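Try this one yourself first.
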């Protein structure tokens, strides 16, 4: 199978290629449709996680968190320090993995590397979840991880557990509960406030250092209602649609590489340290 990032149209055969990736990273007894399974047999912790997430992620909350964290005044850390710092965390929202955070990051990056993608994309795989350090700054997991979605307009019923939005203060707010809400049609995601979490936070930390497709992968990788369900096309512009090809290219590496095989973190470290030094040297403001 051809490498999608080297084709004339890299994304034309994404679906075949996604299926191929699933075949290459099999997990015993885990068919592809078992990933992101939020049906009746979902772990109770995952359901409760989304209950809290959907109840509290409203316009006012998002504004408050942006004011609190986006000055990036928590601390300064190198990428590797952030990886080690993050490694103590277990993600309650994720039904698919028991790997440590560093193992998940390296597994994602190694799968991207094995397919011959550009170095910036390998690095994106390595760092894409580092925004989860928010949890270690005392934030509850429902305000850090899980699927993201726009606030300020109606919540799509294609978001996981949409029934829990009935408890969100914006649900009954006439300013926010129409398809466009406070936004103009096709205004572009740059003008949209997303629910607060690790995607937006890491994007803000690295936004001056990586190419646009890498930034889109980081900023929208948890926006499943957008990149998988196409539930917010009415707010997106042509540039967003172009960037979402890249987000979709990235997604299977994040999702389907969560297999039981653990990467050898110490052996891989020199390669990744060099990659970090190429794009994100020294310390960053978090
Ligand atoms: Fe993530
Ligand atoms: Fe991830």
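Now uncover the answer:
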């Amino acid at each position: 199978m051809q490498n999608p990032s080297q084709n004339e149209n890299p994304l034309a055969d994404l679906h075949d290629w996604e299926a191929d990736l699933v075949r290459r990273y099999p997990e015993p007894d885990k068919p592809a449709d078992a990933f992101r399974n939020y049906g009746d047999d979902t772990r109770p912790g995952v359901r409760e996680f989304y209950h809290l997430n959907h109840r509290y992620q409203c316009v006012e909350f998002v504004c408050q968190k942006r004011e609190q964290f986006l000055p990036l005044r928590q601390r300064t850390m190198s990428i590797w320090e952030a990886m080690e710092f993050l490694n103590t965390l277990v993600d309650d929202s994720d039904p698919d993995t028991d790997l440590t955070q560093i193992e998940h990051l390296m597994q994602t990056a190694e799968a991207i590397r094995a397919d011959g993608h550009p170095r910036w994309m390998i690095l994106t795989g390595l760092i894409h979840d580092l925004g989860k350090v928010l949890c270690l700054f005392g934030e509850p997991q429902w305000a850090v991880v899980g699927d993201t979605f726009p606030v300020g307009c109606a919540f799509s019923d294609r978001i996981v557990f949409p029934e829990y939005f009935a408890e969100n203060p914006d649900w009954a707010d006439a300013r926010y509960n129409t398809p466009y809400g406070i936004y103009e049609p096709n205004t572009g995601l740059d003008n949209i406030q997303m629910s607060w979490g690790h995607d937006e936070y890491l994007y803000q930390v690295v936004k001056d250092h990586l190419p646009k497709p890498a930034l889109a992968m980081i900023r929208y990788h948890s926006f499943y209602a957008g990149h998988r369900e196409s539930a917010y096309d009415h707010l997106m512009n042509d540039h967003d649609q172009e960037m979402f090809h890249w987000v979709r290219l990235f997604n299977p590496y994040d999702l389907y590489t969560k297999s039981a095989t653990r990467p050898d973190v110490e052996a891989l470290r020199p390669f990744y340290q060099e990659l970090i030094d190429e794009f994100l040297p020294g310390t960053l403001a978090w």
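Discussion: The longest helix spans residues 238-256. Residues 128-129, 198, 221-222 surround fe (ii) ion (ligand 1) (CB under 6 Å).
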